[in-house]
């Protein structure tokens, strides 16, 4: 009787440990689910969040196109300000750089050239 009870406990513990081990292994192999990412731009976000149908999406694209100039101006102004701050950071870092790093910084600045034109407004392909 005592032997049967001990065997039952051992089997119970083995099954529990095997289940925990299998669960931990599956979690490691499969990993956590990827986080949900928001759509890449404001047009996609509106389309996604509001579940717009095709006519509504077309209207949204037309409205966004009418405001394109305003958005481009904001993007251009912001880009210039960011570029100015980044150059200031590089200038402050320069005294701490080694000679070969200064040469790399200068070459990198030359490759970057003048400020880039504003990026196109994100949105699904279609008439703009």
Tell me what the structure shows.
This protein is mainly alpha-helical. It has a domain at 68-118. The chain contains five helices and no strands. The longest helix is centred in the N-terminal third of the chain and has 29 residues, at 2-30. The chain is flat. The termini are far apart.
Structural class: mainly alpha
Indicate the percent of residues in helices: over 70%
Distance linking N and C termini: 83 Å
- Count the DSSP helices: 5
- Strand share of the residues? under 5%
The main sheet comes to: none
Question: What gyration radius follows from the Cα positions, in whole Å?
Answer: 29 Å
Please write the string of helix (H) and strand (E) elements: HHHHH
List unreliable stretches of 5+ residues. Answer: none
Query: Which overall shape is indicated by the principal axes computed on the Cα atoms?
Result: flat
Count of distinct strands: 0
Mean pLDDT: 83
């Amino acid at each position: 009787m005592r032997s049967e009870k001990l065997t039952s406990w051992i089997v119970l513990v083995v099954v529990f440990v095997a289940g925990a081990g299998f669960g931990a292994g599956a979690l490691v192999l499969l990993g956590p689910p990827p986080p949900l990412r928001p759509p890449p731009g404001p047009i996609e976000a509106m389309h996604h969040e509001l579940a717009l149908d095709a006519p509504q999406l077309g209207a949204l694209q037309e409205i966004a196109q009418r405001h394109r100039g305003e958005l481009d101006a904001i993007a251009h102004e912001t880009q210039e300000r960011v570029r100015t701050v980044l150059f200031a950071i590089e200038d402050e870092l320069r005294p701490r750089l080694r000679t070969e790093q200064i040469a790399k910084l200068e070459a990198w600045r030359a490759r970057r050239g003048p400020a880039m034109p504003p990026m196109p407004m994100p949105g699904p392909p279609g008439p703009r």
